């Protein structure tokens, strides 16, 4: 496995030698759990042969781990990082790992400083995340590393990512399945990776039901309202707004109501993100794509634990399928 | 000073002995900055006399610090913790301290587990925060501790808090100063400490200009809209809504517009929190109280650094005055 130093026998080595699972080996060495005495003895013998030193929760003199993980984000712990962070925490708590927080605020120098500091602290692992699914440069440190949500540009790195395109397709197909036939796509800036990915997938899924090119603008309610005015002028027969974010979808819904257009009776609307503050406060509440960020964080945390503890070889790339949350705006 | 162990001479001791500031002492020992040579020599002499061991950033064999701080929150890193966290990070970066993140999710057992783990890791200090200004039980550990936003119930503890009552008064007095004379206060649940504090301060500031008892409900836009309908029925001559949160104020503003009431022409509206997503998306944008959470976090971080480094005795209770952000909803 790339970039993981093995300085001492690990519990996985003991387990393999004794012909038991890692969890059984751990129980045997810690004198916990219900095991047959000969199993326990076999594990302890294997540990002795390998020079594995066990202590409370496996910590002993030979244990050079610090039980800390660095979590590096560019998102300033915003809307995307928080649920992800909660998932990571859930997973790492099981391994008694503490999380050191590093918010780079999109500053390359700050990132370099943090990475140096984390190495100096000899963290057991790194989780790298950000607010975009655009691949980022690999940090390339000799420490077990998992990229969460934001993959790296190195296919050899371990990454857990959301399938934005699948999410966009799910929303578009739902609109079509509910009966919308004249749909527009309103989204954020074209240069934004997520906007481009979602727009392309939406266009693919809708085919001729997409009656205009994607309308790129801003991730804001105001842009959603403005897009409604433009669309109603050009395509008064529109019957679906497939939006690139919940903020845009909320602006669309508000403006349609103000223009006397019934949602979902005359026009159906979908969002993206399942940001409760927007999706639930909308009238009606928004049908929207949930990328499952907490689940994604949990998966990233577990993957990192596996790497740190040398438990098998996780897949390099794990892709989480988003879920469509269906609410009043499209029914 | 309570609960701070002093195991080795500190740079403050060196500075005192040499008759210079701590920052000068630090520059002298690290051979940085522009100092007169005799000053530099005097500091080094003082350090030698005291047995102070300097290394890069003052780390030497005598340094038993771990340069880590535990940040414990009950807020699940929500809207209140994030700006605060950024401020704490700003301040602690100056002291090369890493932050270990502990999200208790309002669970007493989880909190106990985290506190034990942080002690075991020998963190240099603790910052305790949460989503309410209601005093919480003191954690009472022999580690330098600063309570941020959520004070403790022990007046001997160090706390940096926001003055919610002053914020509420500022909004109320602004409405009155702009000419509103028939004002209602719409806010969250009465059992919620912030709702009660803000309501009391609002009533005090407005006197007879408050034409109805505080309307307690929920921290939601929906409640704001509902409160408008009730208020217009009972007091059609209302000319000001002083709201306990931006979410409520946004609901109020939306509903007034839907009812054909001009904001701010006929009715002025104020919010509380300066939550950009709500305050700026509102039509018109909201005049609102900003508690300065990032500044508060920075102050808490600096106070903790002072405690850890033994630099003087900070005040036990530091109160930050909120700021009124004036926008279109009240002008």
For this entry, give a set of tags.
homodimer; 331 residues; alpha/beta; 434 Repressor (Amino-terminal Domain); Rossmann fold; 3 domains; 12 strands; 15% strand; elongated
Describe the 3D structure.
The structure is a homodimer of 331-residue chains. With 331 residues, chain A is an alpha/beta fold. The first copy, chain A, has three domains: 11-58, 434 Repressor (Amino-terminal Domain) (Orthogonal Bundle); 68-163 and 293-321, Response regulator (Rossmann fold, 3-Layer(aba) Sandwich), CATH 3.40.50; 164-291, Rossmann fold, CATH 3.40.50.2300. Chain A has helices spanning 11-18, 22-30, 37-50, 81-93, 108-120, 164-178, 193-206, 221-234, 246-258, 276-279, 293-309, and strands at 68-73, 98-103, 125-129, 145-148, 158-162, 183-187, 215-216, 240-243, 268-270, 288-290, 317-320, 323-325. In chain A, strands 2-1-3-4-5-11 form a six-stranded parallel sheet, sandwiched between helices. A four-stranded parallel sheet of chain A has the order 7-6-8-9, with helices on both faces. Chain A has a two-stranded antiparallel ribbon with strand order 10-12. In chain A, helix 1 crosses helix 3, helix 2 packs across helix 3 and helix 4 (81-93) runs parallel beside helix 11. The longest helix of chain A is centred in the C-terminal third of the chain and has 17 residues, at 293-309. The N and C termini of chain A lie far apart (49 Å). The A-B interface holds A 68, 71, 76-78, 82, 85-86, 89, 96, 98-103, 117, 121, 220-222, 247, 254, 277, 281 and B 68, 71, 76-78, 82, 85-86, 89, 96, 98-103, 117-118, 121, 220-222, 247, 254, 277, 281. Strand 2 (98-103) of chain A pairs antiparallel with strand 2 (98-103) of chain B.
């Amino acid at each position: 496995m790339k970039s993981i130093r093995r300085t001492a026998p690990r519990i996985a080595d003991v387990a393999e030698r004794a012909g038991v699972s890692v969890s059984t080996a751990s129980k045997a060495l810690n004198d916990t759990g219900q095991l047959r005495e000969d199993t326990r003895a076999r594990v302890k013998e294997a540990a002795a042969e390998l020079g594995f030193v066990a202590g409370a929760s496996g910590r002993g003199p030979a244990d050079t781990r610090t039980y800390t993980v660095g979590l590096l984000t560019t998102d300033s712990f915003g809307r995307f990082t928080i649920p992800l962070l909660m998932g990571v925490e859930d997973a790492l708590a099981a391994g008694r790992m503490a999380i050191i927080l590093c918010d780079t605020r999109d500053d390359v120098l700050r990132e370099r400083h943090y990475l140096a500091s984390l190495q100096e602290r000899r963290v057991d692992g790194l989780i790298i995340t950000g607010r975009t699914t655009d691949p980022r440069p690999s940090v390339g440190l000799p420490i077990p590393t998992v990229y969460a949500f934001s993959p790296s540009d190195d296919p050899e790195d371990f990454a857990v990512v959301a399938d934005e395109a699948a999410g966009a397709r799910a929303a578009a197909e739902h609109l079509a399945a509910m009966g919308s036939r004249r749909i527009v796509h309103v989204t954020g800036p074209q240069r934004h990776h997520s906007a481009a990915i979602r727009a392309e997938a939406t266009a693919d899924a809708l085919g001729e039901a997409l009656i205009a090119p994607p309308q790129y603008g801003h991730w804001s309610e105001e842009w959603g309202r403005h897009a409604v005015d433009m669309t109603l002028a050009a395509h008064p027969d529109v019957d679906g707004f497939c939006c690139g974010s919940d903020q845009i979808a909320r602006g669309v819904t508000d403006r349609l109501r103000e223009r006397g257009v019934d949602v979902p009776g005359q026009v159906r609307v979908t969002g993206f993100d399942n940001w409760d503050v927007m999706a639930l406060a909308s009238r009606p509440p928004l049908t929207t794509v949930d990328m499952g960020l907490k689940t994604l964080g949990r998966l990233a945390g577990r993957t990192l634990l596996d790497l740190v503890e040398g438990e098998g070889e996780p897949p390099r790339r794990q892709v989480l399928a988003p879920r469509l949350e269906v609410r009043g705006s499209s029914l």
